[in-house]
Design a protein that fits this description.
InterPro entries: Cyt_P450 (IPR001128), Cyt_P450_B (IPR002397), Cyt_P450_CS (IPR017972), Cyt_P450_sf (IPR036396). This is Cytochrome. It holds the Pfam family p450. GO terms for molecular function: heme binding; iron ion binding; monooxygenase activity; oxidoreductase activity, acting on paired donors, with incorporation or reduction of molecular oxygen. The structure is a single chain. With about 400 residues, the protein is α+β, with helices and mostly antiparallel strands. It has a domain at about 80-290 and about 345-405: Cytochrome p450 (Orthogonal Bundle), CATH 1.10.630. It has 16 helices and 10 strands. The strands form 3 sheets. It has a 5-stranded mixed sheet, with helices on both faces. A 3-stranded antiparallel sheet has the order 4-10-9. Strands 6-7 form a two-stranded antiparallel sheet. A hairpin with a 2-residue loop joins strand 6 (about 305) and strand 7 (about 310). The termini are far apart. About 40% of the residues are buried.
């Protein structure tokens, strides 16, 4: 076990957030598991360990299916945070079997390869329209003009949320996702609670409307499954819809702007991509690896485990560093080099095991569609101003990405 007192790993340092990868290299050199006192976590920086632990059933996203807070040596969250935790704790990302299995099996019907493939023309058409608007304006903010509207519209369409009611979705999502950062502030918690209440109230009304007039959307499908038996509670329906919206666009939005920012900083790779659009598929994978949109994923230790001779007790929390794992030289040749032709690319940006991202195939279609449309319709796309990083560490993105066309 190594200490981190003299390392550069500091999730609250803007310089670290701007470029955490050198600090990750130091962590990997120090060992396979590192105790980090500021967050009371065990950091795991190596690809092999992260990959294995994501599949290890001695770890869990929650512990409440087996232990009380007191039994587990943890303090219950503040009562005023209850609306957020009610919403969050009933989504399948934060559940373990058998509840996780039951909900995922139902939701997976909406994400079969055939279903996702049927969405491809809609996604490509919408991406083309968004890029047309960017080109007509001579440029703009790639984040707000293309990266955000595309996945939000796609997942809202799947859920059956009318276009006229979609404006609050992104702000609600951003406020809720603020709670996934390390040690969120009281203000962050307050915003997350408010968004949780407002989003839940909206979905309750939408569910009621779909009960009266079902459609062919996912919410209608969840209602039908719920009404056939006790497979889904109303809270599980609400939490599932919120999770699909949040997870269904956050990673795609950030992967889009992180990816184009990486391309602008690596003009040789951008030139190669412009010369050969068939590279889009491998480019999507490499850009997800190179600047990972989700840097850290947490798990609770349900039963004592050992990593490289270090015993990690039940009740501890493990922080798996996806960004570090995706730059591990034991797995990736020249990991700090952007290589859009990389053949072997077992990145873990979509996680692994039972919590592997159910929307990964759709995210890949969305990323490829926006990239393809930008390459085709905006071949002269260029950076207009140096972007600012969001201060967040866990969910890695930009405040905006100003571009010019023509």
């Amino acid at each position: 076990m190594a200490a981190v007192d003299d390392l550069r790993f500091d999730p609250w340092d803007p310089a670290f957030v701007a470029d955490p990868y050198p600090a990750y290299a130091e962590l990997r050199e120090r060992g396979r598991v590192i105790r980090y006192e500021p967050t009371d976590q065990w950091l795991v920086p190596h690809h092999a360990d992260v990959s294995a632990l994501l599949r290890d059933r001695r770890l869990g996203r929650t512990y409440q299916h087996r232990f009380t807070h007191e039994d587990f040596g943890r303090t219950a969250p503040p009562e005023e945070h209850e609306p957020f935790h009610t919403l969050n704790d009933h989504g399948m990302l934060d559940l373990e079997p058998p509840d996780h299995t039951r909900i995922r099996r139902l939701v997976s019907k909406a994400f079969t390869p055939r279903t996702v493939e049927r969405l491809k023309p809609y996604v490509e058409r919408l991406a083309g329209e968004l890029v047309d608007g960017l080109v007509a304006a001579g440029g703009g903010d790639l984040l707000t003009d293309v990266a955000e509207p595309l996945p939000v519209a796609v997942i809202a369409e799947m859920l059956g949320i009318p276009a006229s009611e979609r404006a609050p979705l992104r702000p609600w999502s951003a406020d809720i996702c603020g709670m996934y950062e390390l040690s969120p502030s009281q203000e962050t918690a307050r915003r997350a609670v408010r968004a949780s209440v407002e989003f839940s109230e909206y979905l309750l009304e939408l569910i009621a409307a779909r009960r009266k007039e079902p459609g062919d959307d996912l919410i209608s499908g969840l209602i039908a499954a719920h009404d056939e038996g006790d497979r889904l509670t109303e809270q599980e329906m609400i939490s599932t819809a919120v999770l699909l919206l949040n997870a269904g666009h956050e990673a795609t939005v950030n992967a889009t702007v992180n990816g184009w920012w990486a391309l602008f900083r690596n003009p040789d790779q951008l030139a190669a991509l412009r010369a050969d659009h068939f590279l889009v598929s491998s480019a999507v994978e490499e850009l997800m690896r190179y600047d990972t949109p989700l840097q850290l994923f947490e798990r609770w230790v349900l039963d004592e485990i050992e990593i490289d001779g270090t015993v990690i007790p039940r009740g501890a929390e493990i922080a798996m560093l996806f960004g570090s794992a995706n730059h591990d030289p034991a797995v990736f040749t020249a990991p700090d080099r952007l290589d859009l032709t990389r053949k072997e690319n077992p990145h873990i940006s979509f996680s692994a095991g039972i919590h592997y991202c159910i929307g990964a195939p759709l995210a890949r279609i969305e990323l490829a569609a926006s990239m393809g449309a930008l390459l085709e319709k905006a071949p002269t796309l260029r950076l207009a101003a140096e972007p600012e990083r969001k201060p967040n560490f866990v969910i890695r993105g930009l405040e905006g990405l100003s571009v010019e066309v023509g």
